[in-house]
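idk why but the lab printer keeps eating my pages so im just putting this in chat instead. protein + 1,3-dihydroxyacetonephosphate:
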Amino acid sequence: MTRVAVLGSGSWGTAFSLVMAEAGQDVMLWARRPELAAAINADRVNVDYLPDLVLPQNIRATSDVAEATDGAQIVVLAVPSQSLRENLGRWGDHIGEDAAVVSLMKGIELDTGKRMSEVITDAAGIDPARVVVVSGPNLAKEVAQRQPAASVVASTSPRMRARVAEACATPYFRPYLGGDVIGTEIAGATKNVIALACGMASGMGMGDNTLASLITRGLAETARLGTALGADPQTFLGLAGVGDLMATCASPLSRNRTFGYALGQGKTLQETIAATKQVAEGVKSCKSILDLALSLDVEVPIVENVEAVVYEGRSTREVVAALMSRARKLETS
Ligand SMILES: NC(=O)C1=CN([C@@H]2O[C@H](COP(=O)(O)OP(=O)(O)OC[C@H]3O[C@@H](n4cnc5c(N)ncnc54)[C@H](O)[C@@H]3O)[C@@H](O)[C@H]2O)C=CC1
Ligand SMILES: O=C(CO)COP(=O)(O)O
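predcted complex ->
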């Protein structure tokens, strides 16, 4: 049995705690609000995020990070990407020297353009070899219902990724090992922006041809950006790439797709933000991903047009026209 700390008790932090607990680990779940931690311990339910899931006894909750991380051999980070650096400022000293540090997050930091593994190294001085990224088609609600799913557990360290994969393997959660941290993170963050675009299209009444075109061309620009950063192109054909795009772009459970859908239906950005109770990472990451792509001179037209809707107030109709009238080019260039 491995001691695991999961820092962040939203949808995915809670569902991943279930996975690790049912893989036999001793899990401490950190919640920002003491009253939520107390309610989880008393009722065995995280009523705010996954009200239908009864948590097993080997998950305990706390709002004290020192208690959560005490003796943890695996520390899992599951907060919104843009809050990670600030949180690590408080948490860094509590993370044990030999612990694997797992990122569940799918975002790129605004202003710095850093991937979450880079933020972990930067903000908490963690050796990059100790960082493990878990990413794939893993809608939290379906995982919490124990529906079979697979995911990539990526790290440059074979020892660290094996430790984490071993700790999260259950009959309904199948980890595959990976070595491409860059590709896995770029795939996870960028698919959120493509899901926003797919949601917008669906909200405007468009059908499967449009969705398939957006997903396929979204994959092309994701792979272009990732390979420019040094990723393995094969990663984008795997679970963190095609797999997660399919799940997120098609599912009404996706917060990013749902956010885009509301915009496509004509809701304003402010109305949509007000109606969104959980994090839709693509809303912020569309800007950081676009900035990253511009800095590398990589074309990301779908990301660029989503950013134009979210940050520049362009209408969804305008960006459809812009995407459809781009200069003709070879599909594979
Ligand atoms: N929900 C899902 O299906 C999946 C989510 N992810 C990724 O996991 C990460 C976390 O997402 P979720 O758990 O779904 O989000 P969520 O919105 O359900 O929960 C976020 C949690 O972070 C807390 N939080 C918010 N702001 C904070 C701050 N400034 N400091 C500390 N804690 C803060 C919230 O109270 C909540 O407990 C995201 O990067 C997301 O893209 C990845 C795979 C699946
Ligand atoms: O990353 C996810 C599924 O793999 C969850 O997507 P959303 O954040 O859009 O809900």
